[in-house]
Amino acid sequence: MKKNIFFLILCTLAYITPAFSADIAEVDKFAKGLADDIMVNVVKSKAPLEEKQQSFRKTFLSAVDLKTAARFTLGRYARTATPEQIQTYTDALTDNIIYTWTKRFSDYAGDEIVFKGSRKSESGDFYITSSIELPETQNNVEVIWRIVDKKGTLKLADLVVEGVSMLMSYRNEYTSILQQNGGDVSALVAQMQKKNETLKKSA
Amino acid sequence: MMKKCKFIFILFFLLFATGCATKPTDPAALDAYYEANDPWEPVNRKIFAFNMTADKYVLRPVTKGYRAITTVGFRTKVRTFLSNLKIPLTVVNDLLQFNLKNAGLDLSRFIINSTLGFLGIFDVAEKMGIPPNYQGFGTTLALWGVPSGPYLVAPFLGPSNVRDFTGTVANIAFDPFTYVSYQNDKIDVTRAFFTADVLEALAGYENSLDLLDEGRKSALDFYVYMRSMYQQYRKKAIENAKGEKTDGDEKAAYEFSLDDEFDE
């Protein structure tokens, strides 16, 4: 019986999935739209920092799969954390990304993000490669946008800068802090919030 | 001399033997412990703190001064010139990696840039379609299947691991320039190349200064931030070198599963 139900679910999934699966062109459009949005509202915007943060927050919240990001970056600690802890952690993580990246984007004096190509991996995730020139050192930095198809909606899952994944970096840092403090998620969140306060104001 | 080496060796051994982190028992903590691959963390942190002090009082002022008196264009030329000196070492490593194609390309790069590129100040070869490629012995070892070993922070040199640090030391021996100057008993030449190495390190540092500052400001734990960056960055460099040999259809390190926590 159990086996039958499993089989049924599998068939249904197999039937539904193609309808959901996005094609590369669509994903490209999504990534470029996101890049344009950030270019106009953050990089080239002359608005005050706070306004740019708000505008980036809006873009970020609609584009990112936060739940997966939060659980992934907590590593195995996500299993033992309470839902409240995960919620406050998610908020602190969001703030951290907003403040850090608004600053990064604002400082970026370059002209454009050049998209170079995209591919779909075996697991079904999309990887879009782009290149950004840093004016200060004239270096070209490779940025890969990892995009996932979340039940028909495209979401930005990760940014990989020169091989360094943002998600993996957060996970390494936060799980290491959790390991040091005996797995206390609330203590980690308190540290993050304190940091966010200083990041928020640093223009 | 021999005695001194022995003494340093024993000192290091004691430092690391006594400086091991205790392995946690909690499963989540154990996961984090293995992912970090840093059993010598206590000692590494001390060396890291030392490096940060050296950074503050020596490296940074020097770098800022260098920035103040030069233009971006000039600094790029300096980097191109210094990295040209590293191409023979790359050729040796290409050969050790059994990558004849790259050995040929890199040798052409060196010849073209050293002549048409005015001793390497201009990267003419890149304009001719031979992109820059730098290989050290650390990557060669990785391609030979040597595992990275634990994470390691080297005094002054910064983040590394046992394999890469071995590679860094071996690079000096493998560099044809070292060999040539030693063979001819030209200590001045050795000195000049040592200076070039120091300059190269400085230029490289200047090149990544902004990224470092960024990280220092936004990270909760800058030590872990650097460790994570280094480990990911090296994986990518090794994948790139590997990709040249296979068809590049191996999974990249950043293609990890996002829900691996719930798979089991």
Primary descriptors:
A: 203 residues; alpha+beta; Nuclear Transport Factor 2, Chain: A; B: 264 residues; 2 strands
Give a description of the structure:
The complex is a heterodimer of chains A (203) and B (264). By secondary structure, chain A is of the alpha+beta class. In chain A, 59% of the residues lie in helices and 20% in strands. Chain A has 7 helices and 5 strands. Chain A has a 5-stranded antiparallel beta sheet. In chain A, helix 2 packs across helix 5 (83-107) and helix 4 (66-74) packs across helix 6 (166-180). The longest helix of chain A has 25 residues, at 83-107. Mean pLDDT of chain A is 86; it is low at 16-20. With 264 residues, chain B is mainly alpha-helical. Chain B has a domain at 2-6 and 37-69 and 135-241. Chain B has 12 helices and 2 strands; from the N terminus they run ααααααααββαααα. A two-stranded antiparallel sheet of chain B has the order 1-2. In chain B, helix 3 (41-69) crosses helix 11 and helix 5 packs antiparallel against helix 6 (100-115). The termini of chain B are far apart. The interface between A and B is large, with 52 and 47 residues.
Task: Compose a concise summary of this entry.
The complex is a heterodimer of chains A (203) and B (264). By secondary structure, chain A is of the alpha+beta class.
Radius of gyration of chain B: 20 Å
Largest interface (CB within 8 Å) is between: A-B, 52 and 47 residues
% residues in beta strands of chain A: 15-25%
Alpha carbon gyration radius of chain A: 19 Å
Count of DSSP strands of chain B: 2
Q: How many domain units of chain A?
A: 1
Largest sheet report of chain A: 5 strands, antiparallel
Report the CATH superfamily of chain A: Tgt2/MlaC
Strand order, largest beta sheet of chain A: 1-2-3-4-5
Multimerization state: heterodimer
Head-to-tail CA distance between termini of chain A: 62 Å
Count of β-strands of chain A: 5
Number of helices of chain A: 7
- Helical fraction of chain A: 55-70%
Largest sheet of chain B: 2 strands, antiparallel
Q: Write down the CATH class of chain A.
A: Alpha Beta
